[in-house]
Amino acid sequence: MGANYSIVFSGSNAHGTSIAVGDYVVPDLLNPNVYVVATTANLAGRRPEAIALTPAGPRTGTFQLQQVGCVSERYTGYTGGSSWVRCSALGRTEACTSGDPLLVGRAEDDGRVHLLMSLPLFSELPLATGPGVLLFDGTTITHLPVAGASEGDVLTLGLGLSLGWASGGGGGGAFNPLSISGAVVSYDPAAATQSGGLVTVVPDGSGNARNGVITGGQEPTYIATDAAYNNKPTFSFPASGTKRIGVPNMGITTNPYTIVMVADTQTAGYLCSANNPNDMAEIYSSSSAVAFSSAYLPVGRLITDGLATAKNVIVAVGDGVSSRIYVSKKTPVTGNAGTHDLTGNVGLLGNYLNSIAGAFSQNGKTAYFGVWGRALTNTECGTMLDGLGATFSVAIGA
What we know:
globular, eight-stranded antiparallel sheet, 2 domains, nine-stranded antiparallel sheet, 3 helices, Jelly Rolls, mainly beta
């Protein structure tokens, strides 16, 4: 037997759904006995299960799938060279970094993929040092130190010890904000492309093709490994100049909506703004307390405190008089954010859309930006705070 092995089996596609060779698939939510293409919408926070080796037409029929082992370029269609690979928003193979929540394997230069189907390698995730137990909940590997143990000791499970599923923190945990439904745009610096240290491409991970708009001469700096953010990539917007990333029409014509950011500022400035000149769904960082700006009602403005050099997980829910802002705390500040229309003119990261200038620059870094076309619930906001806080090492308060 050779070094590579495969397990191939047959499955049926959902009626009205075509599956192509090389599509990653997942059981249909309405009928788990049949498969659909593992697009962002079909995954709905789940992970892809297998790759299709034969096609299936729109009528329900049998096709071949593979879950483990090595699959050739003939099936993957991948030509991106040696890299970790994941399931894209359209259910195809694309390059990624290790630990990606939708990781499916490791590709060779010739397009072969060694399938791992979303299971991160233990050696690829930073863990706490010292002897202990590793718990894996399907997303995060958490290290539990064992008092009195030494390197090389064999640990046994006694009747008095209860181990449950790990959750939340743990260095390098792979929380995926898109596991919460309704995203209309999602920018993760880990998926971005840079040239000469400047951001050149910002793909939209939500599957809605609202890629970031990069203008020559205005590109923010790309930091591939930012120690301040748990060694994750970030976009850096300096105090001088007019660096920014444009956000296309988000398709939100009325409230509600939710803006999610992981970012910091060094001086007062705009983390994001939208819709020049009247509909200002924006987050402005200043030395004032977390609040909503009554001066801008009924259009409204969302304001968060700058806390100087502090980094924060910010979840801003714009829902008229029922609006909420969470700034690294699970208890929100409530108020009236007015009404907003996130269409028409583009949104903007890192500066003020109405008057782009160095004086309005974020003067800080952004590790994540996303917009949801609905008001996230208090529970969902808590999940977002916990997950992003663990990923980027931001302490989350009660």
